Amino acid sequence: MKRILLLLAAAALFLGAAKNPRQTYIEQYYPLAVLEMQRTGVPASITLAQALLESGAGKSLLATKANNHFGIKCHSDWTGEKFFKDDDRADECFRVYPSVEDSYRAHSDYLRQREHYQSLFELDPTDYKGWAKGLRRAGYATDPGYANKLITLIEDFQLYEYDKMTEDDLPAILVAEMAPVTERVIEEAVAPVQQPEQTEPARVQRTAEPAVTVRTAPYKETVTLSLIREIRRMNGARYVRAVEGESWASLAAEYHLSEKQILRFNDIDAPTALQPGTIVYLDRKKPEAEPGYGLYQVDQEGLTLWDVSQMFGIQLKKLQLYNIFRGNAPLEVGDTVVLRKLK
């Protein structure tokens, strides 16, 4: 009898774990987090952990009534629909999104476009602890334990595994479903959104002309591009190759960067003509090459140290420091370039 009771208890624990709402949430939304990571560089583990924490695994009032899974408030630049509820202060204003997908996209853009979060994108993409602590320091949340809560969620549910994924790792059916979902969001955005049923003290304010279509239309375009253009990594930094007709400004806009940011990531002082095939980094390059790449013997004519810095994902100033003995002399075939700090 005692053995049967133990087996029943174990079965109950197993069923309880299988129905864990957090695990269910992760399984439902991890493809969105991975796609957003590929589009903007925000680690999927951080996106999922923040969503779990801020939305109560999708069960909070803000998530169910406003599709806001990240607790993003209105701020002065918000012109869309508004949802009011008590938070740090009474009756605070939060953004309303037409879909969960739109909320995920807005969260990535929110971090990408605000200056006080830019240092996070210089971290190693797998440094979830650095991201969690950086978000707290930058003021994303007032809770002093916010970073530890994110780290605990990431480690308890092994969310760091999603930081290693690419679009190719996602089930094909899930990627294929993204486009129809986006199209539906855009179509529904044209029609009036029904007033949410009030079950808890809160109120929704709707503007006469909500900026829904402005926010959702680019989502379809961006996702489509992200499925076509291959985003690669070199030395931990994301990059793409320019195609005919593109400029630094157009690529910056496509990946939600400022032109100043993308020029800085690529060690360019001022905009220049962008040749097809040029490597363009979407993150800051690393101070030195990956282990195992200590030296490079030049095997092409016409290369400069900038070309080498782009080839290996190394900051140009650091590369110049390692090769200061060269002065300003152009590189020649057969020259050896130092790629890492000499020990």
Description:
The chain has 13 helices and 8 strands. It has 343 residues and is mainly alpha-helical. It has 3 domains: 197 residues, Lysozyme, CATH 1.10.530.10; 53 residues, LysM domain (Membrane-bound Lytic Murein Transglycosylase D, Chain A); 44 residues, LysM domain (Membrane-bound Lytic Murein Transglycosylase D, Chain A), CATH 3.10.350.10. The chain is elongated, with a radius of gyration of 23 Å. The N terminus is likely disordered.
Distance between the termini: 67 Å
Q: What letter string, H or E per element, gives the SSE order? A: HHHHEEHHHHEHEEHHEEHHE
Rg from Cα: 23 Å
CATH-defined fold name of the largest domain: Lysozyme
Structural domain tally: 3
| CATH 2nd-level architecture of the largest domain | Orthogonal Bundle
Question: What profile does the largest beta sheet have?
Answer: 3 strands, antiparallel
| Shape annotation | elongated
Name the strands of the widest sheet in spatial order.
2-1-3
Total strand count, please? 8
CATH domain class name of the largest domain:
Mainly Alpha
Strand content: 5-15%
Mean pLDDT score: 77
Give the helix/strand class. mainly alpha
How much helix is in the residues?
Answer: 40-55%
> What are the segments in which pLDDT stays under 50 over at least 5 consecutive residues?
1-17, 178-228
How many H/I helices? 13
